[in-house]
Write a structure and sequence with these properties.
The chain has 264 residues and is α+β, with helices and mostly antiparallel strands. The protein has two domains: 2-110 and 254-263, Diaminopimelate Epimerase, Chain A, domain 1 (Roll), CATH 3.10.310.10; 128-253, Diaminopimelate Epimerase, Chain A, domain 1. The protein contains four helices and 16 strands. The strands form two sheets. An eight-stranded mixed barrel has the order 1-2-3-4-5-6-7-16. A six-stranded mixed β-sheet has the order 8-9-10-11-12-13. A hairpin with a 3-residue loop joins β6 (102-110) and β7. The protein is globular, with a radius of gyration of 18 Å. The chain starts with a strand and ends with a strand.
Length: 264
């Protein structure tokens, strides 16, 4: 069966999106992994099905490039919002359900193919100091660590070692490294679980990093501008009396790349 799809990316974090409001597509783990394969498939960091929801504008079903489901993806949430906008499902506001919980989204700007999308993340518990970094769950687990040489740091080797460390067994964790780049910007680089390599950006990772830094700085109401290899983000939030984070929002670019059809 031929399946129509669209390709999007959020600051270089790329996805295959499928309109499954009909409920006709039942993809296996191996099919999804093959679609996401960069040599023999379409190529993507993840795949999403946009499905009908009885209570919200749509449902987001997310898979990592290895074909396994994940509860949330920040860049994926922004890209599927852009997809819904292009399909005519939503206007400038959306409410959608994902594997972790419902989310809100706002189309800040849109020219028909690209724009700025802001999504609301769930309440995030206070980051936990762990060894030489912080553990933060922003819908998926992240270990956040500061490094001095962020521009040249070996993200793959160090990230892989931490991702599969016994400290995070049995499921492992995403790993985010941050520091001040040579150009003076706060740069975040992520080894992403499920992709098993460095991605150009990671929305939940950028969010986790912003909150870990805020925990170090001790502010209560703030927003942070962060740069990734793929683009720039703004994370806004409020820290309550217990140290948990409320009203967490992730804003950044989302771009349509192309439409296609495949016999997967």
């Amino acid at each position: 069966m031929k399946i129509p799809f669209s390709k999007y990316h959020g600051a270089g974090n790329d996805f295959v999106l499928i309109d499954d409001r009909s409920g006709n597509y039942q993809l296996t783990t191996s099919q999804i992994a093959n679609i996401c394969n960069r040599r023999t498939g379409v190529g993507a960091d993840g795949l999403m099905l946009l499905q009908k929801s009885s209570d919200y504008d749509f449902r987001m079903l997310y898979y990592n490039s290895d074909g396994r489901t994940a509860s949330m993806c920040g860049n994926g949430g922004r890209c599927i919002t852009a997809f819904a906008k292009r399909l005519g499902i939503i206007g400038t506001e959306a409410r959608f359900e994902a594997g972790d919980d419902p989310h809100t989204a706002t189309v800040v700007s849109w020219d028909g193919n690209s724009g700025i999308i802001k999504i609301g993340m769930n309440v995030v518990a206070q980051p936990k100091p762990f060894k030489d970094g912080y553990f933060v769950n922003t819908g998926v687990p992240h270990f956040v660590q500061r490094v001095e040489d962020i521009d040249t740091f070996d993200v793959y080797s160090h990230g892989k070692s931490l991702r599969f460390s016994a400290d995070f067994a049995p499921d492992g964790t995403n790993v985010d490294f941050w520091g001040i780049a040579k150009d003076g910007h706060l740069l975040v680089r992520t080894y992403e679980r499920g992709v098993e390599g460095e991605t150009l950006s990671c929305g939940t990772g950028v969010t986790a990093t912003a909150l870990a830094i805020d925990c170090i700085e001790g502010k209560s109401v703030c927003s942070k501008e962060l740069r990734t290899l793929g683009g720039d983000f703004c994370v806004s939030y409020k820290r309550d009396a217990e140290g948990n984070y409320q009203d967490v929002c992730l804003q950044g670019p989302a771009t349509f790349v192309f439409d296609g059809e495949g016999d997967f």
